[in-house]
Specification:
17% of the residues are buried. This protein is an alpha+beta fold. A hairpin with a 7-residue loop joins strand 2 and strand 3. The chain has a domain of 54 residues. The chain contains three helices and five strands; from the N terminus they run ββββαααβ. Helix 2 crosses helix 3.
Length: 92
């Protein structure tokens, strides 16, 4: 599905990010847990239900200036779509 940059991603009810006392952050979902690697934790921290998809991408482009902007955009969209398919993210 094509994502629109004005959509607002947020964790679904019953899902939460667990970062304390773990070497790898986990995303707890009703069916279990997903290990987050790379910038996954930061992406989810930005998905607060207030920032649009475009805002999330823009913030990450600011935080990772040496990364290719189009690559950040594509990876964020792919990551969030995969989490949406698992029922962990919804777009408002």
């Amino acid at each position: 599905m094509q994502r629109v940059l004005t959509e607002v991603p947020k964790l679904r009810r019953g899902c939460r990010l667990l970062v304390a006392s773990r070497p790898e952050p986990l995303l707890l979902i009703p069916e279990g847990a997903l290990r987050l690697q790379g910038p996954g934790r930061r992406i989810l921290e930005l998905c607060d239900g207030e920032r649009s998809l475009g805002d999330v991408i823009q913030q990450l482009q600011t935080e990772y200036p040496s990364a290719e902007s189009s690559q950040i955009s594509q990876e964020v969209i792919t990551f969030l779509q995969a989490l949406q398919e698992k029922g962990a993210i919804e777009f408002l």
